[in-house]
Amino acid sequence: MLRQDGLKNLDMLQTFYQRVSESLNMGGNYLILLTHDVYTVPYRATDGEIQKDASDEEFSYILCSICPVKLTPKELSYRLTENRFHTTQGSIVSAPELGFLFPAFDDRAANIYGALYYMKNATENHQEFIDAVFHVEPPMPAAAQKEIFQAILAETLREDCSLEVVQAVHEHLRERIEQHKESKEPEQLLLSQREMGAVLLECGVSTEHVQAFSATVEAHFGTDAQLMPANVIDKKQFVIRTPDLVIKVDPERSDLIETRVIDGSRYILIPADTGVEVNGVSVKMG
């Protein structure tokens, strides 16, 4: 209703503001900003060309921003009428920490069954706000998706979960992310449970372990789960950790790392022909 009447119904607005203020706890004062606008969707021809002047579709939406109101640092001021110094303190509106766009904009059209939800801090989703406004369970945060995905790989792949396999999975997903970015497709890149299984098979994982992976993914993410590659890997770095050291590698050169058994001990090998520095000092490798 708020979107349909362009935020002109004062009673509906008051109800919304009251519902938010009674439920949302930000640990202090905050400002509720609610705006409405209409976006003219450019027409896309069959060859992919955008024709801005040929559009006949409009996207009407509301945007809600929750902005903390914080006190400014105290300042010293002088009141001439009183001939005295005083300390003054004002308030300032900070950048939004929470908000949503409704409806969602999917496939270049309004999706009234979805909304885009924004959190500045991914660990604070303010469930009380979601319950009061949306009455639904929110999607799993990206950090939690990544943590669970990593745990599922280690648990279900078992002996297949080698450095080479994890390396191949990371590289495959990173390439898919880059290809999707270059294609400039507006829709998010999502991989179904079946597609993720195909990735694992391609990376050398046995069918038995792929089936175990799929079943565990279904148990954690749902029957029709779709994973966002950008949420389950860090495309900007490739990190190897042991109890005593950390190795960080440019993801595009993760192929430089290999494992080998030498005299009965397992080693992680890294080429070190040129450009080696130790604590900022160039050294020669003998």
UniProtKB/TrEMBL annotation:
| Xref: Pfam families | DUF4317
Name the chain's protein. Answer: DUF4317 domain-containing protein
Q: Which organism is it from?
A: bioreactor metagenome
